[in-house]
Amino acid sequence: MQAEILVVGGGLGGVAAALGALRAGRRVVLTEEYDWLGGQLTSQAVPPDEHSWVEQFGVTASYRALREAIRDYYRANYPLIPAARAWRELNPGGGHVSRLCHEPRVAVAVIESMLAPYRSSGRLTVLQPYRPVAADTDGDRVTTVTVEHVRTGDRLTVEAAYTLDATETGELLPLTGTEYVTGFESQHETGEPSAPDAAQPMNMQAVSVCFAIDHVDGDHTVDKPAQYDFWRSYQPDFWGDRLLSFRSPNPRTLAISERSFTPNPDDDPLSVVADQRVNPGDGNLWTFRRIAARKLFTPGAYESDICLVNWPMIDYFESPVIDVPDADMHLANAKQLSLSVLYWLQTEAGFPGLRLRGDVTGGTDGLAMAPYIRESRRVRAEYTVVEQDLSLAVRGDKGAVEYPDAVGVGMYRIDLHPSTGGDNYIDVGSCPFEIPLGALIPRRMENLLPAGKNIGTTHITNGSYRLHPVEWNVGEVAGALAAYCLNNGQSPRGVRNTPEHLSGFQAQLIRDGVQLRWPDVSGY
Description:
22 strands; four-stranded antiparallel β-sheet; FAD-dependent oxidoreductase; single chain; 16 helices; seven-stranded mixed β-sheet; alpha+beta
């Protein structure tokens, strides 16, 4: 096949990259390994983690359109009570992690609708479910990428002028020989206050296999997982209890705290104000990432709330799953951990009415269709974002560094989960930050662009840049950049390093609804 722009990976970054390139008039081939487009929002079943100002500013116009279309989908298709239907900032789950907690399948429908006109016109071809298995290069350029159907083994080779890596783990970086880094960089290299003395390339954040549950009459206990006895007795040194418990470190203070778990509480989801500046929202695990609040729907429509489990005890940090020979085994172990958490909740914690809702997450085993991988391979970029660029402790009232080549904004605390190197949480306050174009440009490769969590961040700053709206912004800009280069006979490096092209590209982004600077707001 031939394409002007090939986007490998159909997560949030990949979808946004395709939209950014299509909006600029280019033809796109988009590939995705799983049956749902949308990545962490859909197949990985992670309700959006967003900053406190998301309803006012700090995201791109297309990301805002995605969010509002999700709300409109509920209003058009779900039996909402009148007060919920009239709620401008409708939060269907009444969850505390975000102002918009919803079922993954709704986001799939909305993403498909956003892409539909381009599919119909023939300018977008989606190859699904395909994963990349090989690539060819000519010097510093990618010439072709070969993708394989995950079920049949059939292969297709795609030739493109620009190739964007929007995979969850930066799969194209090793396939193309592009220089990249994994794990923890050293303080000597980055100067980061939270970095170790020596680099730790295999020290990566935990992965999680999420799942959805509700709580109804009857005994819905799953079969005892094969690894249950192992996980039941598993106790990390820093955890303060067994992993399978309601006790764990507070990410911000590291003090051992106990969370509550109350299925179907008698709360008012209309009164929920999700604001992580004020409260991280994880006190009651049930409402933390609730994606369907029964009281927002007509009586009898839902037997129970639906709760999405992405909690501390499902974090798998026994081994990384990138650049190791036994990644599949560790992903299988992560699934066993999640099933063991469910079995523990149903048996020892005393909630046999918990019911696994694999129909909600789309996985064939009752769990999420795809694992949630927080930390990708990261390209060696022209500019690497470091902790001191955005740390509230370092920057204070000066705010995050302002980049002359800013191509977007984001905000989230530097939020690192326990890691495969034995580290506890690293949770550092952040200033509202910008996304530098230099972080999207490899030091050597000319027509390969990162379009997700694989941009030029460090292990530490990835903790802020990995969240839903930032991944979308990065992808959208990567797609727009590839199109701009084709439209103007430029290279990505040339756009960044030529003042008239940089200002022209930034002006185009602004016209397309990409915010480049923050108003005067303080971090948290």
